[in-house]
Amino acid sequence: MNKYLVAPWLFGRYRLSSKTRVLTVAIIMALLSTGCTGKVSEKNQSVVDSVSSQQNLPALKIGVLPTQSRTEQEQMIKPLKEYLEQSLGRRVDTESQSKIIGGQGRHKKPEIQKIQDAIASSVDFQIAKDYQQIIDWLLQDKLDMAYLGPMSYLEAVDRGAKVEPLVAPIDKHTGQPWYRACIIVKQDSRIKTLKDLKGKRIAFVDKLSTSGYLMPLATFKKLGIDDNRNFAQVLYAGSHSNSMAALEDGIVDAAATNISSYLKRQKNGKLTPQNSRILWESAPIPNSPIVVSKKLSPELIKRLKQAFISSPEGLQDIIGTESAGYTLVTPSDYTPIEQLRKYLNLISVPTK
Predict the structure, then answer these.
(1) How many of the other CB atoms lie within 10 Å of CB of 351?
(2) Which CDD domains does this chain map to (predicted)?
(3) For the whole model, what pTM was predicted?
């Protein structure tokens, strides 16, 4: 197996509703306690005001990269939905249709800060149709939070998105906040080295994918392999699942993905250790960040951070990582990826 050609990096680590019936009862009890005078006591009035304020809160919009199949990601959202219901005390609505998010801007009123659990009326998950769409949503200020890859995060910032990384998953298989890109081939393939890929068909994930494009491309350049001229066919599959499916179905001779997605695919796909193998794997890559809008209040960002860090082990990251909790991350953790983008001349707009 060809090992990585880029030096590994080290990363620091740490570990991420109101129910209508309850709210209705609270309002009714408050009103009944006024008696025949028709007046509401100050104490009961505060209950009504709190309930009203919570009902008027905006929804927290969360965008998700389409790294896996839609069915897989919808299933991953379910346990996160349950966890958020418990940790944030809010009803969580999930929506996975790939559509542009509508609605007005989110203006937080000062009095909302007085209510401990008043974060959002709901949490709406939106699975993008491709990597570009989720960046567009961020630029259009239609998301409060997003699950991105390292490269798509940097692309969004370069294009003007006002976001910052919050946390990233700790990989269950390594116990570290990083993962590795890889290229896989069929077990009986005559392809033994990366140079053997010349003249062959290869599947990448997306040009904004870190493990499914950037890392393999950097290694190809070091080996003098031109992705525009040296392959018989280049397929951009759109997701890690689709990239591996193309190999399974014989559409391509090799597929770019990452170790975590490959191991997961072995559990429910046609690829197994018996009929496939890893041709190459990369240096460690800082794990995919969950980013938040800088327009969110510091208190809301703090509480979201606490929720993720306190999440139970075994909760799958929606991007596809089998995680063992979450780690705090900062923009500097993704500097090596930014350097690779510059090395490959993949920064298409001036940095902000």
Answers:
(1) 10
(2) PBP2_PnhD_1
(3) 0.74
- At the topology level, CATH places domain 20-171+288-343 in D-Maltodextrin-Binding Protein; domain 2 (3.40.190)
**Tokens (6 digits) for 308:** 């993720």
Tokens of 194: 């990366």
Q: What is the DSSP letter of 269?
A: S
Q: Are 326 and 170 in contact (CB under 8 A)?
A: yes
Task: Measure the CA–CA gap between 211 and 81, rounded to whole angstroms.
Answer: 27
In the chain, domain spans: 20-171+288-343, 178-286
Q: Look at 227 and 108; give whichever has higher pLDDT.
A: 227
Q: Are 211 and 179 in contact (CB under 8 A)?
A: yes
Say how far apart CA 52 and CA 336 lie, in whole Å.
Answer: 47
Asked if residues 232 and 201 have their Cβ atoms less than 8 Å apart, the reply is yes
Q: Which of 133, 181, 144 is nearest to 166 (CA)?
A: 144
> Which tens digit of pLDDT belongs to each residue from 80-126?
877 776 666 644 445 444 443 344 434 444 443 333 454 555 778 88
The values of phi and psi at residue 173, to 5°, are -80, -25
Strand pairing class (145-147; 60-64): parallel
Nearest partner of 64 among 90, 101, 91, judged by Cα: 101
Query: Can you read off the two tokens belonging to residue 206?
Result: 């997306």
Q: What pLDDT digit, counting tens, does each position of 117-174 carry?
A: 545 557 788 899 999 999 999 999 999 999 999 999 999 999 999 999 999 998 887 8
Residue with tokens 């010349």: 198
Least Cα distance to 150 among 216, 211, 220, 236 occurs for: 211
Q: What is the CATH number of domain 178-286?
A: 3.40.190.10
Tell me what pLDDT residue 57 has.
56
DSSP letter (8 states) at residue 74: H
For 35, other C-beta atoms within 10 Å of its C-beta total 8
Give the CA-trace dihedral at 297, 298, 299, 305, to 10 degrees.
Answer: 110
